[in-house]
């Protein structure tokens, strides 16, 4: 059974973690969660309210990480999922995060990213020339990383599938599962 890696941290967007996590399990993939350290992570919920120029944040669910990023052998995984939230603000500074994520792009493995995860990819240079969605406020980060921002629900560029935010889940996961079924199918 192919293994999927999800990288999360404290303040990961609750819905952007749980929806793909549960979809990967439902599809039959062995799914592991990596974080800066092995611990119970605390997620957040971002919501949109009328007459507020940005989103608001509330406390979300908790979930344990299976392994620390330093323990990840990325060659053991068929695909990567990167949720958004505030966690990307500090995950991008973690050398093991950069090592693991770069592996998936260098090896042309399937990657799904959503929302603010794009701010972790831009400094790695993996967005250069690539069409990608992200939370619209991250469009300048995508451009600075050499990417082409697309305001879309499920942007597919090769084996990379991106989306703006949790509102795009159905389209995002449907497109990512098509990529996985072609490049990392569950046999059984």
Strand content: 25-35%
Residue share in helices? Answer: 25-40%
Class by alpha and beta content: alpha/beta
Sheet of most strands: 7 strands, mixed
Count all strands and give the number. Answer: 11
Strand order of the largest sheet: 5-2-1-6-7-11-10
Describe the structure.
This is Protease. Keywords: Hydrolase, Protease. It holds the Pfam family DJ-1_PfpI. Residues 3-178 form the DJ-1/PfpI domain. The protein has 188 residues and is an alpha/beta fold. The chain has a single domain (3-183), classed as Rossmann fold. It has six helices and eleven strands. It has helices spanning 14-27, 88-91, 95-106, 118-121, 139-144, 169-183; strands at 3-7, 30-35, 40-48, 55-64, 67-68, 79-82, 111-114, 131-132, 148-149, 155-157, 160-163. The strands form three sheets. Strands 5-2-1-6-7-11-10 form a seven-stranded mixed β-sheet, sandwiched between helices. The chain is globular and about 50 Å long.
């Amino acid at each position: 059974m192919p293994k999927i890696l999800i990288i999360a941290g404290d303040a990961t967007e609750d819905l952007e973690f749980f929806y793909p996590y549960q979809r990967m399990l439902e599809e039959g993939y062995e799914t592991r969660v990596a974080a800066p350290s092995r611990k119970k992570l605390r997620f957040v919920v971002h919501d949109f309210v009328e007459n507020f120029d940005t989103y608001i944040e509330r406390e979300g669910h908790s979930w344990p990480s299976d392994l620390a990023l330093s323990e990840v052998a990325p060659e053991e995984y068929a695909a990567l999922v990167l949720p958004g939230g505030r966690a990307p603000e500090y995950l991008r500074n973690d050398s093991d995060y950069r090592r693991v994520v770069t592996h998936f792009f260098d090896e042309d493995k399937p990657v799904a990213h959503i929302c603010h995860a794009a701010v972790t990819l831009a400094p790695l240079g993996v967005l250069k020339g690539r069409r990608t969605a992200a939370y619209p406020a991250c469009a300048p980060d995508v451009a600075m990383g050499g990417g082409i921002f697309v305001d879309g629900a499920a942007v597919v560029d090769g084996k990379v599938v991106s989306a703006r935010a949790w509102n795009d889940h159905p389209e995002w996961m449907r497109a990512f599962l098509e990529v996985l079924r072609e490049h990392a199918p569950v046999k059984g």
